[in-house]
Amino acid sequence: MIRHKNKPIEYLSNTGPTLDIISPELSGVCKSPMKIDIKFTPKEGSFINFSSLKVELLKIIPIDITHMVKPYTTEKGILAENISLPKGMHKLKLTLCDNLGGKTQVVYNVTVV
C-alpha cells in the first residue's frame, strides 16, 4: 500500500511494505535543497529487505539517487534533509521489497523551483 497525505501516487507494484510519503509535498512546488521523509511499514509476518531500496530520478536515462538517501535510511524509513535536485518537474521512482518477495514500487512527481 502507498499513501500520501495530499494526493494519490502511481504504483507499479504493491505487494511489499507500505510506504507513507510525508515529504516532499506533491500538491505544490518544492525548493531545493529539500527534505525527503518516507515511512516504511512491513506487512505482517515479513521484514524489509533494505538491500532492495532504490530511489531513481526518471529521465530519458534513469538516474539512481539511492546513494543520496541511503545514509539517512533506517528500519523506519528515510529522513533526509538538504537533498538537492535540479529545478524542473521530476518523476521519482521508489522501490522497496520484503523478505517474502513482496515488492512495492511507486512513481510520483515533484516540481522543484
Explain how this protein is built:
The chain is mainly beta and 113 residues long. The protein has one domain. Strands 2, 4, 6, 7, 10 and 11 form a six-stranded mixed beta sheet that branches. Strands 1-3-5-9-8 form a five-stranded mixed beta sheet, with no helix packed on it. A hairpin with a 4-residue loop joins β10 and β11.
Which properties best describe this structure?
single chain, 113 residues, six-stranded mixed sheet, five-stranded mixed sheet, 4% helix, 59% strand
- First-to-last CA distance: 29 Å
Number of domains: 1
Mean pLDDT: 86
Largest sheet: 6 strands, mixed
Radius of gyration equals 13 Å
The helix tally amounts to 1
By DSSP, the count of extended strands is: 11
Approximate strand percentage: over 45%
- What is the H/E order? EEEEEEEHEEEE
- In which range does the helix fraction lie? under 10%
Structural class: mainly beta
Global shape: globular
Q: Could you name the ranges where pLDDT drops below 50 across 5 or more consecutive residues?
A: 1-6
Short description:
The protein has 113 residues and is mostly beta strands. The protein has one helix at 66-69; strands spanning 2-4, 10-14, 18-23, 29-30, 34-41, 48-58, 63-64, 73-74, 77-83, 88-98, 103-112. The strands form 2 sheets. Strands 2, 4, 6, 7, 10 and 11 form a 6-stranded mixed sheet that branches.
Topology:
Layout: E1 2-4, E2 10-14, E3 18-23, E4 29-30, E5 34-41, E6 48-58, E7 63-64, H1 66-69, E8 73-74, E9 77-83, E10 88-98, E11 103-112
Parallel strand pairs: 1-3, 4-11
Antiparallel strand pairs: 2-11, 3-5, 5-9, 6-7, 6-10, 8-9, 10-11
